[in-house]
């Protein structure tokens, strides 16, 4: 039995009791540290699987002895043994792949992990038939997998410890297998040049955005840089939208998967939250929101629970970084916060009203603007929104303080529709706008 402790509050005594021996016990300071022991865990898992799964030589000999009464029977036995070994090999292969999913930052729905031996590949983990499965994926030509960004990135910008160029002579070359330019699995998004379509097993087509200032190039099978003056003439649509009328299905048309725990759909068509409730939209894990973000939601709060309750955040665990996007309630007030890579934070506060509260929050790279129950406030703020490895969390932040109430609409835009609330305003920090 292998045991791995993550964080600073682990009990080594408890890990020791669970593990088969001290050799099978590990501890790391955070989830990023798991990457450093993936290779060791993989070898130990393979050893355990082979030891406990493969039949012994004596068993196979016994099986062979009982079935080899003639030359014809011997042939049949050999084929049975080959079939058995083939099935075991396939089972072990999938088990080894599944072991690579251990330590994924995203451990539900869809997760991604680095390949231990090849930076041009990564492991995509997804749920199918009630269990997690793994599939080896290839990055586009000229890119390496970046576990920090959770995406394929320019090879010269990725710290790849298995890069062949680190152990070869200058001006030498090496072959790149499985990188035929005609075999691009990504599809062009006809509605938006600055995004592309990826077919995810078990989920279906998902629209993924390119980095700001780039557009998808089918010939390169990746997002390529374009002129800063180029602007796509496309309608601004939500990246994800939930109305909770009957279920948790995404209404945006992008089929975005979200994990939910202890959330109930009410007869009135709203999502009810209580202790331990949460919805995690993994689609926004490690997403570069840049300087464009719009959130719309409608919620009501119950008169109990913690003093401060999270409505929408992108917290990264109890011991991780605080949110760079947060809409919370503190007693009878609503607080909106955005933090940028420049270290600055924009904060707006509003009073709640009885019943449902309507909130629209916009960040445009110059201001944080919010419209709450018809009242508008803004504050000056510049820079890209800080990236977080967590997805967007509804009703939760650190796992300790839960939202108690209902939400009957929630939408995320990574563009700015042309509405009055999105018009540029003067930096009126905390001042109401008539």
Automatic annotation (TrEMBL):
GO terms for cellular component: extracellular region. GO terms for molecular function: chitin binding. Residues 98-162 form the Chitin-binding type-2 domain. It holds the Pfam family CBM_14. It comes from the Eukaryota. This is Protein PIF-like isoform X1.
């Amino acid at each position: 039995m292998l045991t791995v402790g993550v964080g600073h509050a682990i009990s080594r005594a408890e890990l020791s009791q669970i593990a088969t021996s001290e050799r099978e016990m590990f501890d790391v300071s955070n989830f990023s540290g798991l990457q450093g022991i993936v290779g060791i865990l993989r070898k130990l898992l393979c050893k355990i699987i082979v030891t406990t799964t493969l039949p012994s030589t004596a068993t196979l000999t016994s099986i062979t002895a009982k079935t080899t009464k003639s030359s014809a029977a011997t042939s049949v036995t050999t084929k049975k043994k080959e079939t058995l070994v083939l099935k075991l090999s396939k089972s072990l292969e999938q088990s080894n792949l599944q072991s690579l999913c251990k330590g994924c930052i995203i451990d539900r729905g869809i997760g991604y992990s680095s390949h231990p031996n090849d930076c041009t590949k990564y492991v995509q983990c997804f749920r199918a038939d009630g269990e997690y499965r793994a599939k080896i994926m290839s990055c586009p030509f000229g890119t390496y997998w970046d576990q920090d960004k959770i995406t394929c990135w320019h090879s010269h910008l990725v710290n790849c410890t298995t890069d062949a160029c680190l152990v070869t002579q200058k001006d030498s070359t090496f072959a790149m297998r499985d990188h035929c330019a005609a075999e691009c699995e990504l599809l062009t998004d006809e509605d938006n040049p600055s995004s592309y379509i990826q077919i995810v097993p078990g989920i279906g087509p998902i629209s993924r955005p390119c980095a700001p200032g780039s557009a998808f190039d089918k010939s390169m099978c990746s997002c390529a840089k374009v002129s800063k003056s180029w602007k796509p003439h496309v309608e601004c649509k939500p990246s994800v939208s939930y109305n909770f009328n009957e279920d948790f299905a995404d209404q945006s048309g992008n089929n975005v998967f979200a994990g939910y725990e202890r959330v109930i759909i009410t007869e009135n068509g709203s999502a009810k939250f209580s202790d331990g409730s949460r919805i995690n939209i993994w689609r926004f894990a490690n997403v570069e929101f840049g300087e464009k973000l719009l959130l719309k939601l409608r919620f009501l709060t119950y008169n109990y629970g913690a003093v401060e309750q999270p409505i929408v955040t992108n917290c990264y665990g109890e011991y991780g970084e605080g949110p760079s996007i947060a809409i919370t309630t503190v007693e009878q007030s609503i607080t909106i916060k955005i933090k940028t890579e420049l270290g600055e934070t924009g904060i707006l506060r509003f009073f709640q009203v009885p019943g449902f509260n309507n909130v629209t929050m916009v960040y445009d790279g110059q201001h944080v603007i919010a419209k709450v129950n018809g009242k508008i406030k803004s504050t000056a703020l510049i820079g890209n929104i800080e990236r977080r490895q967590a997805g967007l969390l509804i009703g939760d932040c650190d796992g300790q303080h839960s939202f108690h109430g209902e939400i009957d609409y929630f939408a995320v835009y990574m563009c700015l529709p042309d509405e009055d609330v999105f018009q540029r305003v003067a930096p009126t920090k905390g001042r109401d706008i008539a």
